[in-house]
Every structure is written in C-alpha cells, then in structure tokens.
Amino acid sequence: MIRAYKFLLRPTARQTVVLGEMLRDHCSLYNGALQERRDAFRHASKTSIRYGDQSAQLREIRAFAPESQGRWSFSSQQATLRRLDKAFAAFFRRVKNGETPGYPRFKGAGHFDTVTFPKDGDGCRWNSTPHDPQTRVRLQGVGHVRVHQHRPVRGGVKTVSIKREGNRWYVILACDEVPAEQLPPIGAVVGIDMGVTHFLTTSVGEHVANPRFLAVSADELAEAQRHLATFPRRTKRRTKAHRAAARKVAKIHARIRRQRLDHAHKTVLTLVRNHDVIAHERLNTAGMTRAPKPKPDPEQPGVFLPNGRAAKAGLNRSILDAGWGVFLAILANKAESAGRTVIAVDPRNTSRTCPTCGHVAKGNRVTQARFQCAECGFAANADHVGALNVLNRAGLALCAAA
After folding, report:
1. pLDDT > 70 in the chain, percent
2. Distance between CA atoms of 371 and 396, rounded to whole angstroms?
3. What radius of gyration, in Å, describes the C-alpha atoms of the chain?
4. Which phi and psi angles does 105 have, rounded to 5°?
5. CB-CB contact of 275 with 334 (8 Å)
6. Which of these three, 126, 144, 162, is where a domain ends?
C-alpha cells in the first residue's frame, strides 16, 4: 500500500528564514515558467512549451542566478516545473470536456507553500529514528532540520515534501510497500447515514454528534475577519499590523481544520475496529453544495425571482463544516489498512424508503427527524431509516458480487 506520513518540523530561527527563501525562489521559478508559456503562446504563433523544454533550461537558470536558484535541489526545481505542467494538463482536459477551464494563475508568495523532492537522497535525506529527539531531515541549502516524529515510518520513502501551514512547517513522506495492519474479523456489519443534525447515524440507531467546529468558532473568526477588513485591500506594502491580522485569520482556520481532521480520524477508528463491513452513501459533495441557478423573471427583463440562495448557502456551509469528503477519504484509507470492506451505495431515496415494506414516497419523511411509512405505518428516526436502507443496499451488493 501507499501511505503518507506528516510530521511537524522544528527548525531553528535561521532555518525558518532559509525555508521561507526556498519557497519564494521556487515560487519565482513557477511564475517565470508560467510567464514563458503565456508569452510563447501569445506572441510566437501560438507555440506550446512543455515540461521537457523548460527542464532543459534549468542549468542555465541556475548558473545565471546562483544566489536564488543555484543553491536549491535540481530535482525539487524539476518537481516545481512538473507541478506547472500538471496544471496546464488539467486546464486542457477541462477545455476538452467542456468544463470551466480555469487558466493556470501566478502564485503569490503567500500561496506557494510546498516544495517536493521526488526522491529520497536527491537533495534531501530522511533520517528515520522513531521517537528519537535527534531525528532529522537533511535539505539541500537548509541543513539538518529537527523532526517531531510521533510514530514510526513503515515502507520505503519515495518522495519528501516540505509544507508551510501558517507559521508551522511540516515534512510529508510518501511511502510505498507499506505493510497492512489487518485487524481480526469481528463479524459485524454496519450502515451509516451522513447528516447535518447528526454527523452520522448507524444502522443500530447510534448517533454521532456533529461538532460544528466552524459554527463554534464563527464569532471569533468573524471578529478577526472584520479586523483584517479594516486594512486597505490594495497596498504596495503590507504593514506589520496587516500581516498579524492575516495570520490571526489563518490561525483560526488552521485550528478548525485540525479539529475536523481529529474528529474524523477518531470516528473512523471506532467504526473500523468494531465492524468488518461498513456501508455508506455515495455522496457528491461538490454537487450538493453548488449554488442554485438564478431565475430570471419572464415579465421583467433584468429582474430575477427568489431562488432560495440564502437558505442554500446556510445548508452548504453546514455540509462543508461537517467535512463528509474528508471523513470518507479517511474511512477508505483506514479500512484498507485494517483489511475491512467499505461499500458505497446509491443514495437516492434512502430517507424516503420504508425498510420494512419497501414503499417509496416523499410523504414518508414527515419532518427532518421523523419517518413514518404511509403504507404500513412503520415509524422511526429518519436518519436511522436512512442507515438501515444503506445497509440493505450493501447486502444486495455483496450478494450480487458473490
């Protein structure tokens, strides 16, 4: 299996400055390569420049600018050029499929936060000593940086990435051939229904509360954003107070993100340890949180009818705050490592189908929390009914596969 390990770095004050310079120089390389592609397409008879052409120029660039480009790893700079090439490949794929293209944009110094070393030992060296305060990662141009390694690394290290999140630095190791840690079989099967009122409900009727981390920190975040908004948006030079206000907003968002990840990991771990098969709805979060289309008034040109955009925005915020996508991704990874089975089923009408008689009707969902079948009178919690239907559909899928 392929797994990623993320550890906190503890650089010195000098190393922190050098790490920032490394990001800025790689960002400059990315933007320069993007500008070259734009100019070639616009002014040179729509000539396309590819990764191979720009990679061949790296030696000249490093020799011309030894202070900004020559001191960093050659392979990490190639990875930055590949990153730009992937952005263009995704752009052309979206154009071909008729989607909204989104042309690759220049990166600001504060929005280029990752440098990747494609191979351990080429510009970087991971020194793995589990739970040892002397664990280091050696980076070309930076030196040996201390690592807070809180768990052992399994498998072989393939790539090493350095990432900045706010004022923290992390090292991310992508490893292959990671051995599975299979758990003993239990013989339990469960279906789960994702929701907003409850984070999830199991087919046995257990509810996991929705922590609503964004809603809890909403007042603090709004105050920080109001303070940040008092500064001019377009300034040649950001003041120290402006940078501090921006860091405060970023710090709150980072804390919410960590809380959401922690909750997802702990909830998934409980499910994986107690069940052999876990079934869930195949959710399209991007489609569910899409803003409603405007409704033009046929009688008054230029006037639009109410389309429930404000109410939908509140629902979208609650769905994104729950973090269903993150939770399901973690569930798939942990289940694979533990030897468990995860089944995604069709979510249509799971909350409108009676698990007893199979009657499907919109009127079966009496309220957001109450289900009562109009055919047989079966009544239960609506989320519990959804989890039961998910489990039933997973059983049919298992039977069909067998």
Report:
1. 96
2. 23
3. 26
4. -110, 160
5. no
6. 144
Write the pLDDT tens digit of every residue in 325-355.
999 999 999 999 999 999 999 999 998 999 9
State the pLDDT at residue 193.
Answer: 94
- CB 113 within 8 Å of CB 105: no
Domain that holds residue 72: 13-144
- Give, in degrees to the nearest 5, the angle at Cα 153 between 3 and 342: 35
Q: Are residues 337 and 199 in the same domain?
A: yes
pLDDT score for 234? 66
Closest CA to 115 of 82, 150, 152, 86: 82
Q: Are residues 382 and 255 in the same domain?
A: yes
Residue 84 forms part of a structural domain: yes
Is the residue at 173 inside a domain? no
**Residue-by-residue DSSP string for 38-88:** HHHHHHTTS----HHHHHTTHHHHHHH-TTTTTTS-HHHHHHHHHHHHHHH
Cβ(364)–Cβ(352) below 8 Å: yes
Residue among 46, 56, 163 at smallest CA distance from 113? 163
What is the C-alpha separation between 123 and 74, in angstroms, rounded?
7
What does the alpha-carbon distance between residue 6 and residue 163 come to, in Å, rounded to a whole number? 10
Say if 250 falls within a structural domain. Answer: yes
Categorize the per-residue pLDDT at 402 as very low, low, confident or very high, splitting at 50, 70 and 90.
Answer: low
Task: State how far the alpha carbon of 48 is from the alpha carbons of 37, 51, 137, 393, in Å.
Answer: 7, 10, 38, 50
Please compute the mean of the pLDDT values over residues 28-54 and round it to a whole number.
Answer: 87
**Residue holding tokens 């305060």?**
133
- Edge-to-edge strands, sheet with 114-117: 114-117, 156-165, 168-176, 3-10, 143-148, 136-139, 124-127
Same domain, yes or no: 315 and 261: yes
- State which amino acid sits at residue 203: S
Q: How many independent structural domains does the chain possess?
A: 2
* 154 CB burial (10 A radius; 0-12, 13-18, 19+): middle
> What digits encode the pLDDT tens for the residues 261-290?
999 999 999 999 999 999 999 998 888 888
Residue 154 lies in a domain: no
Distance CA 370, CA 351 (A): 10
Q: Do 371 and 385 contact (CB within 8 A), yes or no? A: yes
Residues 199 and 50 in one domain: no
My answer on whether 360 and 239 are in the same domain is yes
Q: How far apart are CA 77 and CA 79, in angstroms?
A: 5
**In the listed set 89, 114, 144, which residue is the last one of a domain according to the structure?**
144
Closest to 121 (Cα-Cα) out of 107, 141, 137? 137
